Amino acid sequence: MRTVKFYLDSDISRVSLRKGLLKAGIDVSWTPNDWMPENASDQMQLQEASLRGRCLVTHNIADFYRLHVERPDHYGIILAHQQGWQSGDILRALIRMVRNVSPDKLRGQIRWLNEWKV
Question: Which CATH number among 3.40.50, 2.60.40, 3.40.1130, 1.10.150 corresponds to the domain 6-116?
């Protein structure tokens, strides 16, 4: 069974979150890396994540919602408000999401992380 692969944009990428996802055995990528420069635009981040079959996770609600409307051909966008979310809360919700959602169910979807909040 395929599982969701994540791309954490620069707004949500924290060392503790990245380490926690990797420790849980979840395929995760973030900025910067060999295919994403640190100064990448939101559009480039969504495009490159999609090319790699990655679901984008972000706090940048307004910009990525707009991009979703403009180009819904992505592998999912997960939105999380900045207030009320600690790294541990985000980690638990993403792990829960991976265990309960297939990548096919996220394709072209924009969803709120709250759906999987523990």
Answer: 3.40.50
